[in-house]
Amino acid sequence: MNDWQMKSPLDWETYVDKRVKVAAAEKNEYEGWVLTVDPVSANVVLANFPENRRVSIVVVLGHAVQEVDVLQEADDEMKARLSCIFAPEESKVYSPEEMDKRKNDLKSWLEANHIPVTEQGESGRTLCVAGVLTVDPPYGPEECSSSNEIILSRIQGLIQGYLEKRQ
After folding, report:
1. Are strands 18-24 and 65-73 parallel, antiparallel or unpaired?
2. What is the separation, in whole angstroms, between the first and last Cα of the chain?
3. What is the pTM of this model?
4. pLDDT by residue (tens digit) across 111-134?
5. Which of 146, 65, 67, 158 is closest to 109 using CA atoms?
6. How far from 140 is each of 25, 31, 64, 105, CA to CA, in Å?
7. Are the C-beta atoms of residues 97 and 150 closer than 8 Å to each other?
8. How far is Cα 28 from Cα 44, in angstroms, rounded to an integer?
């Protein structure tokens, strides 16, 4: 094991959101913004933003890393760019008020269609449908879970149809 692999995850975390130069085996050098370091393999995930092109991702295998030099700290704008690289296109942050409205609208729609629904959990954030399915925030078909695949599929289809009609 090399020195890089011997570091702890807390040590590696100090490199996240920094522009680094990685010296690797066979005199290879890589430069980029550190997105993350895998705590098991010590692999370093680097991102670069070439002009007028999509983001470029490079993974440097942990066993090949010989030295890592910090070149630059990320400003707030760069941190924001880095944090959304792997976020789905449709991901959206909802305010607490929007989340409550989404939950209440879905609950009302399900009740209007004679589907029994209750609120669960300490804060009542989870909807429980017919006692066999739960819907977590942000209350889309992907957030449904149930051990009954037939009910899961049907409720997901209903919620998908409901969301499409709302738009």
Report:
1. antiparallel
2. 55
3. 0.56
4. 999 999 999 988 888 999 999 999
5. 158
6. 46, 39, 42, 12
7. no
8. 14
